[in-house]
Amino acid sequence: MQSPLRLQEMIRVIRSARTQGEERGIIQRECADIRAQFRQGDNGERSHSLAKLLYVHMLGYPAHFGQMECVRLIASTRYSEKRIGYLGAMMLLDENQDASLLITNSIKNDLSHSSQYVQSLALCTLACMGSAEMCRDLAPEIERLLRASNSYIKKKATLCAVHIIRKVPELAELFTPSARSLLSEKNHGVLHGAVVLITELCEHNPGTLDQFRKAVPELVQIMKGLVTSSYSPEHNVAGISDPFLQVRILRLLRILGHNNDTASDAMNDLLAQVATNTDSSKTAGSAVLYETVLTIMDINSESGLRVLAVNILGRFLLNNDRNIRYISMTSLQKIVQTDHNAVQRHRGTIVDCLKDQDTSVKRRALELSLALVSAVNIRSMMKELLIFLSTCPPELRSHTTSGIFNAAERYSPSKRWHIDTILHVLTTAGGDVRDETVPNLIQLITTASELHCYTVHKLYRALVKDISQQSLVQVACWCIGEYGDLLLKGECEEIEPVQVTEDDVLDALETVLQSHMSSPATRGFALTATMKLSTRITDNVDRIRSIVSIYGSCIDLELQQRAVEYNALFKKYDHMRAAVLERMPVMDKNSPGHTNGDTSGEIKEHLQCYKTYLFQINAVHLNFLLIKESWTKNVSRFPQKYKAEMQKRCVYVHVVLTETVYEKNGLSLKIQCDKQTETEVTVTLIGSNSAQNDITNFTLQAAVPKSVQLQMKAPSGNVIPAHGLGQVTQTVVLNNPNKASLPCLFLCLSVFLTEPVSTIYVQA
């Protein structure tokens, strides 16, 4: 039988395994040997076997069978076995396992051991994996060790006390008296543990803040001693005296000085001294300075000290270490709102960080640059942001465009500049803008009536040049449809005039309609623009009619539906075409529903819905039935001004001529609008029969919304003669006392015939 391998030899053999299967074989063989050693009892090899098992555990293989061996070794009187036993307990046991409770008594005994090294093992184990029950049982022992004379034990006891407070916060009061006394220690390890303990006490029990604020002068003196002390090899790190302790003290001072003038005043001079005397050329110095900056910004510090802190962060931006630049911009982002002018002094350096190769640094620089935009620097900052947009990574484009749009809307010096900026973004990154960009830009254009000519010329040129940016193409088509007459005049003072003919404009729109790059929504814009031009030009109406009719059989149902409706406007409703296709109304930004930052959420929602419906009807399509159905569900939510405008736009929908609404099996049903006022509509339903036999027992039923009163007059009869020799009529009166939107009423008619019941939905 092969003898068990020693730990070093086992490690060498496992590392030399060529395959995972070979490694598993070695591990299984060694685990079997380890089990055998555990069963043999105290043969002097148990600690070596457990050490091998811990290495197996580190490789990710099961090692739970060694838990009880850890308990036995901890109870051993030999230090070598205790050491491996405690190490195994920290690695193989946790607070959720029952085996961990078995070592509580051993830990309590070892905390009173005569050897400081045995005490240290017990303290480290309790601080690592002590459960709440263990902490409650052993807390008095830890508090006793905090008063020990041995600095080595006292240091470890403080860290163990921190673990107990985190596990059982109600035990914090037990350690409060001892924590304050530890600040008088000279040993840096004890001081470090004391500061961590006090920090934990303050965070878990804010009631102790006043008590520990009395210790601020002591903390200041300790910190000054570290800053001004001479070289000490034991604590020096890259020329900084114990930077770990300095960082911990600064964090504690930040907690104690928060919202407290007295404590803040006591530490102002110290913070200024640390900020001016600490060398930032090394990472250790940068860490101390960074904590100093955070402390200055979080306490009630003087204004000059806050400027000094911002300048330190500005110096960090010039550091070659990207991590330091990143945390600097993260900190500046937090204080830019409160110390805007101080951060503005470093605007040039921040903008230069947009050129960094690291994407995370670019993202932070972008967020900070957007936060620095103001009415004073809007032109220069926007120039830099637009340059960045043309070269930024794809994952930052959407965020960049959103930030540019928000800044332009908030600080634009003029409407022309605002429009030019958005058009530049659409030209550069039109595929990365938000969905609401198109309607928002259209709203902006409608309010700038003096720039309609300039805008339509500029958009026409952009459309001719490139049709790949869908958002830009949609806005261009909309503007051409609305202001095509201004484009054809060729008279524009703000831009170099270009003679554009009707054929040129229609060619451009046809190109969009036929392009494989155009989305269905973009084609809808182009088709609607073409339709609107029929009322703005004179010589090419027939060509427009031909274009529209072509798409009446389009495979895309949405486009086909629009084309069919537009054809109906050319034929049956030609007398209404000019009114239906008139220009969009101007939406005033200062009207209810759109104020600059002071708008309630409800009014904002009203405006957005209004803009959506108005936009659908005028810019996207004339799908009357769907628009009216949606409007019915939302009409009660809108301000009266928008209701009136919406009805104006929908007026053509409820102007009924006589219309045939049902025709099947010889039965023809027509609806005729006889009278319409603001509160009442009178319609007549006319039924005729072209079949061979008479229709008997003919009945009409109607249903309307609850807000409308329905009155059905007696029908002229219930038999409709065959061969069209007679008719049956019935008058229906709809009373609308609440003045609900009449175009939104639906009449449900049920026709009872010899065949199954058919339901017809007819708009009144």
UniProtKB/TrEMBL annotation:
What compartments host this protein?
Answer: Cytoplasmic vesicle membrane; Endomembrane system; Golgi apparatus
Q: Name one GO biological process term.
A: intracellular protein transport
| Lineage top rank: taxon | Eukaryota
SMART domains reported in the protein's UniProt record: Alpha_adaptinC2
Keywords, A to Z? Answer: Cytoplasmic vesicle, Golgi apparatus, Membrane, Protein transport, Transport
Single GO cellular component annotation?
AP-1 adaptor complex
Q: Which residues form the GAE domain?
A: 654-764
* Keyword presence, Membrane: yes
Q: How does it sit in the membrane?
A: Peripheral membrane protein
Q: Which Pfam families match?
A: Adaptin_N, Alpha_adaptinC2
> Which Gene3D superfamilies does this one have?
2.60.40.1230, Leucine-rich Repeat Variant
State if Membrane is listed as a keyword: yes
Q: Which family does it belong to?
A: Belongs to the adaptor complexes large subunit family.
Protein name according to UniProt: AP-1 complex subunit gamma
